């Protein structure tokens, strides 16, 4: 079966400076409007033409009524008005259809751009950002932001913009009957709009509270779904159902409170605009009785009065609804657009793969986690290219921190980590990642096919190279036994595979990567004896000719390594071969070696060499 999976080209577009919009949701929206500026301009123009046609119909009706009141003398005006009326209807409908056709494409593209850019920005955060945040809530916020932007674009195109243009053109048209009437109407409309806007602002905290709670509920639901085996194993399904029901009730309460506040604003607006429209009609009738307005003028004022009533109502409702979406967008951007953690050093050095040797040095390195005591203090370690080094020590001694600094998941606070003589903070991302292959304790597999997960080590690899990597890692037998072989989807996080199979796929991925540095982070600690035998055999083949840096709790897995580094409290307590460390007093022999489970051999497992 063909194991070749579709390989998409990498996204090389420059990352937009999204962090500047963290507290500017409207600026965030306009960024994407300008990104598709030409198409938005066409939509706005079409809507403006349609609105002009709509208001123009009232003026045409005025001439039609005036012509009809003149009897036979006005028949010419009547027929002209009828012709104009038909042409205006055609133009109005055509303009709306053009706007709708264009919007159906560009608004969807804007939503896609928002989701794509937020995903790219979100994935640029380091491990600290994700440590105290639910991944489900973050994903929900990305979708919520895109949904809010698209909803605001639709609201602006079909509610806000038409209402504003209708009001503006209607008031100008009314000015042809009575300039004073138009001026009074402008003042009252502005005053009403200001009051509604201020009152809507007071409800922002309610909308914000609901938006935050909705995102958290989505995230917690996903968190439980991803850990259903744990929930079932401990009989906590009923407890989780009750907990989720309680959280949803809280979300419903906040949502109801938010919606009812909006309804109060709508009621206030409805009462005020009803009085305004009635007053406008009475005023027009009064002018007609004073022979300062024609019958057609009264009809037009009545028509425009109802238009203004509907427009102000739609405008007020849309503004309140838009405020809710803007608030939710602001809450989302505040969480997602946290500035990226960085070293402050420009990543400008490029090392071609042919120049990578795998010489690693940590020079006078110091590091502490936020709010914690120093984990590494003036730490020095030199690992020549091709050497196998094992890091051992009790939990908290700094082993995993060394690996994190080497992979630039964390940034040194003093000193430097160098690769082939170059500070890794200065290395461009591609050079750094090409230098390393990682086999972790918890293997990360995507919900994709076996072939795609192996090919993640090198996306441009051929089918033959993928199969060769699988063979070298001892995967071929169990892959061929799967329903679709290399095309079999492994399930979420590789749930369709055993722990040993997942580890061997990670080793196949590392084989395909063919990087000069191999990092083993507790790669066998969670496996049973049978699985560990297979994984060790694969690792033994993988380590040949590479710089190997391994963290291991089971000391037997490090037999045959060139050097063992014993760490205590962020310092190197001892270093040497396994035989040398066993021969002298120190933490290796006195503490680590005395712990039976660390040295216990795995039945049938030959030491690595």
Main sheet properties: 6 strands, mixed
How would you name the CATH homologous superfamily of the largest domain? ABC transporter type 1, transmembrane domain
Number of DSSP-assigned strands: 10
Instruction: Give the helix/strand class.
Output: alpha/beta
Q: Give the strand order of the largest sheet, numbering strands 1, 2, ... along the chain.
A: 6-7-8-3-9-10
Helical segment count: 20
| Shape by Cα distribution | elongated
Query: What is the CATH class designation of the largest domain?
Result: Mainly Alpha
Question: In short, what is this structure?
Answer:
With 609 residues, the chain is α/β, with parallel strands linked by helices.
List keywords for this structure.
six-stranded mixed beta sheet; 609 residues; 60% helix; Rossmann fold; four-stranded antiparallel beta sheet; ABC transporter transmembrane region fold; alpha/beta
Please describe what this structure looks like.
The protein is an alpha/beta fold and 609 residues long. The protein has two domains: 21-202 and 264-336, ABC transporter transmembrane region fold (Up-down Bundle); 385-399 and 434-598, P-loop containing nucleotide triphosphate hydrolases (Rossmann fold, 3-Layer(aba) Sandwich). It is built from 20 helices and ten strands. A six-stranded mixed beta sheet has the order 6-7-8-3-9-10. The longest helix has 53 residues, at 237-289. Residues 596-609 have low confidence and may be disordered.
């Amino acid at each position: 079966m063909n194991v070749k999976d579709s390989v998409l080209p990498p996204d090389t577009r420059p990352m937009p400076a999204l962090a500047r919009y963290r507290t500017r949701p409207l600026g965030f929206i306009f960024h994407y409007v300008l990104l598709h500026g030409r198409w938005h301009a066409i939509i706005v123009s079409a809507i403006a033409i349609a609105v002009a046609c709509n208001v123009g119909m009232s003026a045409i009706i005025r001439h039609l009524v005036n012509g009809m009141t003149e009897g036979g003398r006005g028949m010419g005006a009547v027929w002209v008005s009828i012709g104009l009326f038909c042409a205006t209807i055609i133009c109005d409908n055509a303009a709306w259809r053009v706007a709708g056709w264009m919007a159906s494409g560009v608004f969807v593209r804007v939503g896609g751009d928002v989701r794509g850019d937020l995903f790219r920005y979100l994935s640029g955060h380091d491990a600290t950002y994700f440590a105290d945040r639910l991944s489900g809530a973050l994903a929900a916020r990305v979708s919520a932001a895109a949904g809010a932007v698209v909803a605001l674009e639709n609201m602006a195109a079909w509610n806000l913009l038409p209402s504003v243009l209708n009001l503006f053109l209607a008031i100008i048209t009314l000015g042809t009957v009575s300039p004073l009437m138009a001026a009074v109407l402008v003042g009252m409309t502005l005053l009403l709009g200001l009051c509604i806007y201020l009152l809507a602002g007071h409800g922002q905290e309610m909308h914000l509270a609901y938006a935050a709670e909705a995102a958290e509920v989505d995230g917690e639901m996903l968190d439980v779904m991803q850990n259903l085996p744990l929930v079932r194993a401990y009989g906590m399904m009923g407890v989780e159902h009750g907990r989720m029901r309680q959280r949803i009730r809280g979300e419903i309460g906040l949502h109801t409170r938010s919606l009812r506040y909006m309804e109060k604003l709508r009621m206030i607006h409805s009462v005020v605009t009803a009085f305004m429209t009635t007053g406008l009609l009475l005023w027009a009738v009064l002018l007609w009785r004073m022979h300062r307005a024609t019958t057609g003028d009264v009809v037009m004022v009545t028509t425009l009065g109802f238009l203004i009533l509907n427009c102000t109502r739609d405008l007020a409702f849309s503004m309140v609804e838009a405020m809710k979406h803007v608030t939710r967008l602001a809450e989302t951007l505040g969480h997602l657009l946290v500035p990226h953690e960085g070293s402050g050093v420009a990543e400008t050095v490029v090392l071609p793969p042919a120049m990578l040797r795998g010489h690693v040095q940590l020079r006078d390195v110091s590091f502490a986690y936020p709010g914690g005591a120093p984990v590494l203090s003036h730490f020095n370690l030199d690992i020549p290219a091709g050497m196998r080094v094992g890091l051992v020590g009790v939990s908290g001694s700094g082993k995993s921190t060394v690996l994190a600094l080497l992979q630039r998941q964390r940034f040194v606070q003093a000193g430097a980590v160098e690769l082939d003589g170059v500070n890794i903070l200065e290395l461009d991302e591609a050079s750094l990642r090409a230098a390393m292959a990682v086999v972790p304790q918890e293997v990360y597999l995507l919900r994709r096919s076996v072939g795609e997960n192996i090919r993640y080590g090198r996306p441009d690899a051929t089918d033959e190279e993928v199969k060769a990597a699988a063979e070298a890692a001892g995967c071929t037998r169990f892959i061929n036994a799967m329903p679709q072989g290399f095309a079999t989807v492994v399930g979420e996080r590789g749930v369709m595979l055993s722990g040993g199979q997942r580890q061997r796929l990670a080793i196949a991925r590392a084989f395909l990567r063919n990087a000069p540095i191999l990092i083993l982070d507790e790669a066998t600690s969670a496996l049973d004896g049978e699985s560990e035998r297979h994984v060790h055999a694969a690792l033994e083949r993988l380590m040949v000719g590479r710089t190997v840096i391994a963290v291991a709790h089971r000391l037997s897995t490090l037999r045959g390594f060139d050097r063992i580094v014993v760490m205590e409290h962020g310092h190197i307590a001892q270093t040497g071969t396994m035989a040398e460390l066993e021969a002298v007093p120190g933490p290796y022999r006195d503490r680590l070696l005395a712990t039976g489970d660390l040295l216990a051999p795995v039945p049938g497992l030959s030491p690595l060499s």
